[in-house]
Design a protein that fits this description.
Keywords: Disulfide bond, Signal, Zymogen. By secondary structure, this protein is α+β, with helices and mostly antiparallel strands. Helices cover 33% and strands 16% of the residues.
Length: 328
């Protein structure tokens, strides 16, 4: 009898803790689920159970409460990954844009670490919202670094211009897109600043009237790194700066909170992000990747992905790396 009473008490305490956590979560993220509140609470509890289960395994990474803890896995994938991402290499064959392959034999060695955040080439973490525009954020991030390297000025560029204006190049706004197609748009039209053309997380009519060109037309080229080449990717980061990468943003990505991710994701590309550095001296070597899901996800908006010897890399990071360069 006493054991039964204790079990009831423990369940009640656990339930109260879940309710308190859920209330704090809603307050922090300014969420009001209305009549859907009970369902969202059950989803939240299920995700907390999953977090605890994974964290009990002593892995090299930790899961935790993120802005997506109220979503089922299917809902998260629908809202935050890109249905149009992928098909990248096939598209290259039909493009007349200036593209050159990046050779991994251009330099004999690489430094043990590289971090473009510390170098001042990277703007603050941004938030794409519930819009499949990751491709626009990885594009602007790489161009921001190129512009910083060429001019000395770090300027936050406009993702919204790419979302709204690059559809004639094959992109589909919040439904997804490709960095290559975004770079083709930028090469033809240039690109304005985020200040002049702010982000709305929605598809709207293109209007660049009066938007100053930070990136000038006809000044951008694009290189792809050989798929499956860890050496090529690391050397590209050293020589060129931040590199756009395709990732499998499903699985544990939804609830990633910190550490070096070395499992828990596939290699099917459905998300774009920006590789901004690496560290070979760490106990577990890693790539440093800037995401576009806000600062409350991951390690202040970043994720560390393990450097390994698999063909595609963890989460497919070696499948579709690419970067822009300045053409004088």
């Amino acid at each position: 009898m006493r054991a039964s009473i204790l079990s009831i008490v423990l369940v009640a305490v656990g339930c109260t803790q879940d309710i308190d956590m859920f209330a704090s979560y809603k307050k922090e993220h300014k969420l009001d689920f209305g009549s859907d509140d009970d369902y969202r609470f059950e989803v939240f509890k299920s995700n907390i159970e999953y977090i605890n289960e994974v964290n009990s395994q002593g892995l090299s990474y930790k899961l935790g409460i993120t802005p997506f803890t109220h979503l089922t896995r299917a809902e998260f994938e629908e809202r935050m990954t890109s249905r149009f991402y992928g098909g990248y290499l096939n598209y290259l064959r039909s493009s007349g844009f200036l593209i050159t392959n990046y050779s991994a034999s251009q330099i004999s060695g690489i430094p043990d670490t590289m971090n473009y955040v510390d170098k001042g080439w990277v703007t603050g973490v941004k938030n794409q919202g519930y819009c499949g525009s990751c491709w626009a954020f990885s594009t602007t991030g790489s161009l921001e670094a190129v512009h910083k390297n060429v001019t000395g000025d770090l300027v936050s560029l406009s993702e919204q211009e790419l979302v709204s204006c690059s559809t004639p190049y094959g992109n589909q706004g919040c439904r997804g897109g490709l960095e290559l197609q975004a770079f083709r748009y930028v090469n033809d039209h240039g690109l304005g600043s985020e200040k002049d053309y702010p982000y709305t997380a929605s598809q709207s009519t293109c209007n660049i009237t009066g938007v100053k060109r930070v990136i000038k037309p006809h000044t951008i080229g694009y290189r792809i790194v050989k798929a499956g080449s860890k050496k090529g990717l690391l050397q590209a980061v050293v020589e060129a700066g931040p590199v756009t990468v395709g990732l499998d943003g499903t699985g544990v990505f939804q609830l990633y909170k910190g550490g070096v991710l070395d499992s828990g994701c596939g290699t099917s590309i459905n998300h774009g992000a920006l590789l901004v550095g690496y560290n070979m001296n760490s106990e577990q070597p890693y790539y440093l990747v800037k995401n576009s899901w806000g600062e409350k996800w991951g390690e202040d908006g970043y994720i560390r992905i393990a450097i390994d010897d698999s063909e595609d890399g963890v989460c497919g990071i070696l499948k579709e790396p690419s970067f822009p360069f300045h053409r004088a």
